[in-house]
């Protein structure tokens, strides 16, 4: 076979590989949606799960997922904002900064199950938070921090240094300049990263099994006093999320309709993650256009 | 290009009667271990335009940036000698660098308006410093833009983004932003180098207007520009101020060979 | 006195804000470093208890293949041989990397060299979507599609290393692909132009020039993928069969460090040997993730030296 023929063959093989990957995704999505969507109904989305009988929904799990996500973001966004500012604006090129960067890199590459186990050990047992939303949110925060921090640092670095000089030359401090000039300009990137992070958090289960727990006690959606145990807002109640629910019914579920429920739940989960993705792109682009006055 | 002596210098003396706004003495700037300025001592007269000229790498920009401590932002920068302003050395520990920069403003080579509206570009810093009176802010915007010769072009769309302006307009917006702080001294680092000839001449007119109220120190690559607008000119060469005199004299009867060669275009 | 001079000699509001802001950012970053230190401290202190408190031999832990911490053997020693899990974890990791790498590199070449237009329009979003799919969904599909398919084709239960490999292959594919794309993009254009100008075909240029230049970056991507596969818990746990036995073949039920951990930690009593032994597995997982990190750094350094 000569070089020309080899070149032809390689091109064909590469097209084939690309095709196979597209096919894999298409069949994944197709399977989940075809299996799952018929099961998704208003009843399914709003009613509580059943342990032994068919016909259970995912209402509480869905709420838990969003509530947990919200809390985790509320904790992790300010911290990673501060940390990202430190790395982008104040960190000097020295050993200490190397150590900090290495620590963040390690944290981002830790298996989420290890993060979950640490959360179990510290928040659930040591701090006596028990299996609770709070423990789960803190575990998700640890899981989320390194990525958000890196994203925020990168977004801040993308803003021209001349913008900082402009602020400084007016007599503003670096901090004021960063907060009022640089962050607004970096916002499209930061928001995109945050939403993508939210998507990741939304689908995370391994870090939650032993922190937020695997049970979803009934909630009273008329009771919005966060101190009551049946209140949806209570942060000390155990809270199985949608992702954990899928794992749970598949590994030890005894519902007769486990397959249908998981397919339905998976479809909802995937649609939510897709939505996060689309939202991230759309908002990022919109904000960017607005900022650059194009 | 030949090498010129760094000890063969002429620095013009100033009379008692001339008011000095800012004066450096034996100013050295180091980047890590590299000495970028070798002890520059220059006084600047109040309400005059002083131009700093010289080839790239001659240290003129480094010198300018040290006058309001913008070099602080570059890691590994060290400064010795003094910069006396209103009786204090701005590098001394007692001086608040942020307060100092309010009085010694700066405009940069590349226009760098904030990604905010024209109005907000100008009012942003004053508001941070506590001015919230709408009327006063409006007035400040109008006055600064008029001083920067931009008012007539933008008065109807003050709320559009500063980034939507042309390069020359952006630079004048930056000048307006700087003078809205009512600084004492205005430092300009090649403010027209990124602009077309028409914008350049508008910016030059603006500077001539501003001279009545501001002490201006401007770095420029462009010798015609220095000749057109400045009262004094300092020629920098290899990290040293070689000759400092009235602009007229620098361009017609320079005392030092290096200056003569530079202004006549033998190197640069 | 001169008011400007007086103002300059006072500490300004900006200076105070700067100090406070710097402090806030320092506290935030310290918090993250502290979390990392705490994770290492807690997991290590629990994980080492097996060896120091329960006097389990480290070598026995790593090399023996019977995992039943609750039952003592004939000599009265606890049986905590983690070999089955170690074999399982490395097995699925290496196999999935071996399967995923050609696909990932092929896809990356397609996206950068063959058809950047189709690559950006179709493959890029496909890759991003694959990253976005939560691991439990992969597990669910593995359980409801891959496992029955294997059962059908090869007999047995269908659970095992093969199923795990399949699931992980799809999961790490996007990671390796996007890092390979970055590596290929980093190869200067003139490398390609020089090679093509010498009369090489496109494939010769890709295989002999571009891939060689991008090798460190591609390897980094593969190791990243392996790290992800090694640490993945739920998707693997759902399809591997969860039998703490040395696998006879690719389709016999097996287990990984992560699968035993997720299944077991809730069912053991804190401080007991069974529990400590699980934490030792977690420690092993932690150390492996560290090792992957070191390998990535090492490759990065080697790659820099070559330039």
Automatic annotation (TrEMBL), chain A:
Indicate whether Transmembrane helix appears among the record's keywords: yes
Keyword field: Cell membrane, Membrane, Transmembrane, Transmembrane helix, Transport
Chain coiled-coil ranges: none
Ranges for domain ABC transmembrane type-1:
62-280
Give a single Pfam family match: BPD_transp_1
Judging by the UniProt lineage, the source's domain of life is: Bacteria
**PROSITE patterns in alphabetical order:** ABC_TM1
Classify the main location: membrane
Q: Which InterPro entries match?
A: MetI-like, MetI-like_sf, Phosphate_PstA
Membership in a protein family:
Belongs to the binding-protein-dependent transport system permease family. CysTW subfamily.
Q: What is this protein called?
A: Phosphate transport system permease protein PstA
Look up and give the organism this protein is from: Lacticaseibacillus jixianensis
Q: Which gene encodes it?
A: pstA
From TrEMBL, chain B:
UniProt keywords (A-Z) are: ATP-binding, Cell membrane, Membrane, Nucleotide-binding, Phosphate transport, Translocase, Transport
InterPro entries assigned to the protein according to its UniProt record, in alphabetical order: AAA+_ATPase, ABC_transporter-like_ATP-bd, ABC_transporter-like_CS, P-loop_NTPase, PstB-like
Q: Which residues form a coiled coil?
A: none
Looking up Pfam families in the UniProt record yields: ABC_tran
Q: Which GO terms describe its molecular function?
A: ATP binding
Lineage: superkingdom = Bacteria
Entry-linked CDD domains = ABC_PstB_phosphate_transporter (cd03260)
Q: Does the keyword Translocase feature in the UniProt annotation?
A: yes
Residue span(s) of domain ABC transporter: 22-263
Matching entries from Gene3D superfamilies are given as: P-loop containing nucleotide triphosphate hydrolases
Protein name according to UniProt: Phosphate ABC transporter ATP-binding protein PstB
Encoding gene (name): pstB
Automatic annotation (TrEMBL), chain C:
Q: Record's InterPro entries?
A: MetI-like, MetI-like_sf, Phosphate_PstC, Phosphate_Transport_Permease
Q: Where are the transmembrane segments?
A: 21-44, 86-110, 122-147, 209-230, 277-299
Q: Name the UniProt key words of this record, in alphabetical order.
A: Cell membrane, Membrane, Phosphate transport, Transmembrane, Transmembrane helix, Transport
**This protein's record includes keyword Coiled coil:** no
Q: Where is the ABC transmembrane type-1 domain?
A: 86-296
- Keyword ATP-binding applies: no
Entry membrane topology: Multi-pass membrane protein
Pfam families, sorted: BPD_transp_1
Subcellular location, in the record's words?
Cell membrane
Record's signal peptide: none
Q: Kindly give the PROSITE patterns that the UniProt entry links to this protein.
A: ABC_TM1
Q: What NCBIfam families does this protein's entry cite?
A: phosphate_pstC
Q: Which family does it belong to?
A: Belongs to the binding-protein-dependent transport system permease family. CysTW subfamily.
* PANTHER family referenced in this protein's UniProt entry, alphabetically: ABC TRANSPORTER PERMEASE PROTEIN YQGH-RELATED, PHOSPHATE TRANSPORT SYSTEM PERMEASE PROTEIN PST
Function, as annotated: Part of the binding-protein-dependent transport system for phosphate; probably responsible for the translocation of the substrate across the membrane.
Q: What is this protein called?
A: Phosphate transport system permease protein
């Amino acid at each position: 076979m000569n070089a020309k023929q080899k070149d032809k063959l390689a091109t064909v093989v590469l097209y084939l590989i690309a095709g196979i990957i597209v096919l894999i995704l298409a069949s994944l999505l197709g399977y989940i949606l075809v299996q799952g969507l018929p099961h998704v109904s208003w009843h399914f989305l709003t009613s509580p799960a059943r342990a032994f009988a068919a016909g259970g929904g995912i209402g509480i799990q869905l709420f838990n997922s969003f509530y947990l996500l919200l809390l985790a973001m509320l904790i992790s966004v300010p911290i990673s904002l501060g940390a990202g500012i430190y790395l982008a604006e104040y960190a000097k090129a020295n050993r200490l900064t190397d150590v900090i960067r290495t620590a963040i890199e390690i944290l981002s590459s830790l298996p989420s199950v290890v993060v979950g186990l640490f959360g179990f050990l510290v928040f659930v047992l040591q701090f006596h938070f028990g299996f609770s939303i709070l423990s789960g949110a803190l575990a998700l925060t640890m899981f989320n921090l390194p990525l958000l921090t890196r994203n925020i640092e990168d977004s801040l670095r993308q803003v021209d240094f001349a913008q900082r000089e402009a602020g400084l030359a007016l007599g503003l401090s670096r901090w004021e300049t960063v907060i009022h000039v640089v962050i607004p300009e970096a916002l499209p990137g930061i928001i995109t990263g945050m939403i993508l992070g939210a998507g990741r958090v939304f689908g995370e289960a391994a870090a939650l099994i032993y922190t937020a727990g695997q049970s979803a006690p009934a909630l009273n959606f008329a009771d919005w006093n966060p101190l009551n145990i049946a209140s949806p807002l209570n942060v000390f109640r155990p809270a199985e999320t949608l992702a954990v629910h899928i794992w749970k019914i598949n590994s030890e579920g005894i519902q007769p309709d486990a397959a249908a429920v998981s397919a339905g739940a998976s479809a909802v989960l995937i649609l939510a993650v897709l939505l996060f993705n689309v939202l991230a792109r759309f908002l990022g682009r919109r904000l960017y256009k607005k900022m650059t006055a194009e | 290009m030949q090498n010129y002596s760094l000890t063969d210098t002429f620095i013009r003396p100033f009379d008692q009667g001339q008011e000095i706004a800012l004066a450096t003495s034996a100013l050295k700037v180091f980047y890590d271990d590299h000495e970028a300025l070798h002890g520059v001592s220059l006084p600047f007269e109040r309400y005059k335009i002083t131009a700093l000229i010289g080839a790239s790498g001659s240290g003129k920009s480094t010198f300018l940036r040290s006058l309001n401590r913008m070099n602080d932002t570059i890691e590994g920068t060290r400064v010795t000698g003094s910069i006396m302003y209103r009786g204090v050395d701005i590098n001394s520990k007692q001086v608040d660098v942020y307060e100092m920069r309010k009085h010694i403003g700066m405009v940069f080579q590349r226009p760098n308006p904030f990604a905010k509206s024209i109005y907000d570009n100008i009012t942003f810093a004053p508001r941070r410093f506590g001015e919230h009176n709408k009327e006063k802010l409006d007035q400040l915007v109008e006055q600064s833009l008029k001083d920067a010769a931009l008012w007539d072009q933008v008065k109807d769309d003050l709320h559009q983004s500063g980034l939507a302006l042309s390069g020359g307009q952006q630079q004048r917006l930056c000048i307006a932003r700087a003078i809205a702080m009512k600084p004492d001294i205005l430092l300009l680092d090649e403010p027209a180098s990124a602009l077309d000839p028409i914008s350049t001449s508008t910016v030059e007119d603006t500077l001539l207007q501003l001279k009545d109220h501001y002490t201006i120190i401007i770095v420029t690559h462009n010798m015609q520009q220095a000749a057109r607008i400045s009262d004094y000119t300092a020629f920098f060469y290899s990290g040293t101020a070689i000759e400092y005199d009235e602009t007229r004299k620098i361009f017609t009867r320079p005392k030092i060979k290096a200056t003569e060669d530079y202004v006549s275009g033998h190197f640069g | 006195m001169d008011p400007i001079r007086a103002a300059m000699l006072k500490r300004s509001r900006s200076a105070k804000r700067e100090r406070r802001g710097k402090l806030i950012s320092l506290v935030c970053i310290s918090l993250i470093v502290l979390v990392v230190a705490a994770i290492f401290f807690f997991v290590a202190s629990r994980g080492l208890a097996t060896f120091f408190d329960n006097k389990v031999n480290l070598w026995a832990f790593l090399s023996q293949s019977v995992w039943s911490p609750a039952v003592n053997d004939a000599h009265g020693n606890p049986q905590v041989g983690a070999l089955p899990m170690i074999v399982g974890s490395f097995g699925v990791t290496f196999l999935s990397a071996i399967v995923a790498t050609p696909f990932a590199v092929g896809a990356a070449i397609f996206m950068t060299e063959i058809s950047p237009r189709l690559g950006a329009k179709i493959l890029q979003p496909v890759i991003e979507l694959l990253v976005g799919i939560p691991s439990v969904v992969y597990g669910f599909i593995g359980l409801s599609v891959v496992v029955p398919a294997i059962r059908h084709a090869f007999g047995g239960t269908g659970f095992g290393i093969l199923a795990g490999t399949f699931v992980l292959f799809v999961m790490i594919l996007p990671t390796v692909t996007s890092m390979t794309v970055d590596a290929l993009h980093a190869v200067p254009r003139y490398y390609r132009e020089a090679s093509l100008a010498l009369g090489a075909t496109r494939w010769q240029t890709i295989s002999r020039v571009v891939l060689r230049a991008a090798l460190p970056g591609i390897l980094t991507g593969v190791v990243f993928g392996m790290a992800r596969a090694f640490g993945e818990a739920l998707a693997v746990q759902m399809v591997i069969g969860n039998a703490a036995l040395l696998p006879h073949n690719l389709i016999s039920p097996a287990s990984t460090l992560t699968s035993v951990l997720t299944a077991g930690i809730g069912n053991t009593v804190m401080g007991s040997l069974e529990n400590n032994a699980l934490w030792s597995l977690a420690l092993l997982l932690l150390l492996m993730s560290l090792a992957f990190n070191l390998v990535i750094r090492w490759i990065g350094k080697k790659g820099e030296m070559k330039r």
